[in-house]
Amino acid sequence: MASATATLNRRGTSEIYIGGAGDTRTRLVAAYAEARQRDFAHEAHHDAHYFPHYALRRILNLARQHADAGRTLILVGHSWGGDTALRVLKALQPRRVDLLVCVDPVPKSRLNPPPTPRNARRIIHVDARPSHPNRSDQVKEMGQWFGGTLHRRLSSADTRIVADLNHFAFAQMMLAPGEDGLSAAHHINELDSPKRSRGASSNSASSGQVK
Which of 49, 58, 65, 47 is nearest to 84 (CA)? Predict the structure, then answer.
């Protein structure tokens, strides 16, 4: 993954992916984040990072560094990673996150519920509602029985995407279209489009090239 100590491009975008309880074994989110990083291997302005759900302090340190550098900041959390993303978001105040994506989030504790997101410029809630549940959905239901639901915390989401997918189908949920036909992955890519355009224009001008 990209080094957190590298010199940061202030026009850049940082995507932070947070895995769920079993992601160190299933690598659902880790593999997705690594694929994103490979896509950005030759782009100094864009990076992606992965963390397990229990690495709150490390996530917060990286997010603060990148937010203070003026980068566009995107938080994506799956399952228990959604709970962690909400806690990171609150701890970042008064800094703001440009986009928060909670993908079928599951809270960790009824006694210590995650906070309501208040400092995200845009919030997307992807909610898995499979017509054919499997074992991963049973695991989710058990987590919700113990921890409660995050739906109330995310009731103010700008976009809610209901996906006929199973809880472990993280990559597919990122591509699932909402009512407007746009997916979470599309919204993430759109955030970076203006920066790509400005960067290309700047490079062309400085090199004397005519487009």
Answer: 58
What whole-number distance in Å separates Cα of residue 106 and Cα of residue 48? 23
Closest CA to 93 of 118, 125, 76, 121: 118
- Average predicted confidence (pLDDT) for the chain: 88
Query: How many other C-beta atoms are found inside a 10 Å radius of the C-beta of residue 137?
Result: 18
Using alpha carbons only, what angle is made at residue 52 by residues 57 and 133, rounded to the nearest 5 degrees? 140
Average pLDDT, integer, range 83-110: 97
In the predicted model, is pLDDT for residue 112 greater than 70?
Answer: yes
Q: What tokens appear for 154 in the block?
A: 């995310």
Beta-ladder partners of 125: 102, 160
Residue corresponding to tokens 């909670």: 102
Residue 49 C-beta-side C-alpha neighbours within 13 Å: 23
Q: For residue 121, what is the enclosing H or E element?
A: none
Q: Are 9 and 44 in contact (CB under 8 A)?
A: yes
Query: Is the pTM higher than 0.85?
Result: yes
Tell me the two tokens of residue 67.
Answer: 């937010």
